[in-house]
Amino acid sequence: MPKRSAPARKAAHASSSRVRPQIFMSSGMTAPFCWSWIDKFFFLIKYSKSRYNCYHSARQSEIVCDLPGITGMNESWNEHSGNHMNTANIAMRIGIVGIGQLGASLAARLRQIGCLYLAALTREEGKAEELRQSDLFDAVTTAPEEVIPLCDLVVLCPPPQYIVETGKNLLPHMRSGSLLTDVGSVKNAIVQALEPEALAAGVSFVGAHPMAGDERSGWQYYQADLYHDKLCFLTPTEQTPFEAVEIIRAFWQAVGCRILEVSAEEHDLACARISHNLHILAAAIVLQNLSPESRGADQAALAGIAAAGAFRDMTRIASADPGLWRGIIELNAEKTLTALDELMTELDRFKQVIANQDWEQLTRLFTQAKTLEDRWREDVSIP
Predict the structure, then answer these.
(1) Per-residue pLDDT tens over the stretch 91-113
(2) Which of 41, 195, 205, 226 is the most buried (most CB within 10 A)?
(3) Please, which residues have CB within 8 angstroms of residue 24's CB and are 6 or more apart in sequence?
(4) pLDDT averaged over the chain?
(5) How far is CA 49 from CA 17, 44, 103, 210, 379, in A?
(6) What class does CATH assign to 6-19+59-262?
(7) CATH topology of domain 267-379
């Protein structure tokens, strides 16, 4: 695929007749200056959701059908989720590398919507044998040379700290003109390290991060509808070929995702605030309450007995894979520190209000938080 400069990519976007999902406010719309900042914030959420719903329900087939390798869209009944979901016949040979919950769920969804060929690459022969007993893949191997040269698209699904190394090791086996994407929850370090080498090998890499998965790890926890209606970040650079971005966009849409295109740095700061921060906070709350070293055996035992719904809601993600989250934080340390500083500022504000016994201000803070949370849940349709 020919490389296009940033102006050329933008011009192509502007001149293209295809409708694209935009879940951010277009430059032609402005909120009235008299609105409060809260009103403006929720206007953005409502506007973006309505734009996506309109696109998703009426335009998806128009967009996807004219992209190479993705031959059509139609409505079908998804037995796994019990919902109507858009499906596509993907006329591509796809390889998935790293088969945990995300990789296996992607395979299950691709099995539903159909693709020419679906291969799995894993490092462990024991896992490979387990996967061969499933009906998820046409081929399963530990040898990249057996399947990667056959693939039009390779999706990297190992833990984020291994994505760059894995991708670089696969490039010699990939055909010139093929595509590479990933599911990594950190983007800047991955994109900067992997894209230049991919382009040098004639491969187009488009960084992606579908916001899917839960605290469980292992391919046995796959769900065919895991990606349905989930946000997927795309983080192309000025060097990323426009056509590659469009195909990867259509691929993740076919799987069921909504798309948001941002820079890798914007992605990393946003995810540090709304994801990485929360895992650190959940771990800190567990250590504060349940660690005998922190509180003594008696107090830790009492906390374990007394902890109820609020504690479970706040700490569920502390059960996530420690190695995975060590890798995520390590790759995104700078942005995570920024987000932690912001969180500490908010906690210090509450601490100061309580120390000053300013109960009216405490009520205002709780009220502001409740208003934001309630309106956010309503506008993004969270039960």
Answers:
(1) 899 999 999 999 999 999 999 98
(2) 205
(3) 44, 48, 260
(4) 80
(5) 22, 8, 27, 17, 8
(6) alpha beta
(7) 6-phosphogluconate dehydrogenase C-terminal fold (1.10.3660)
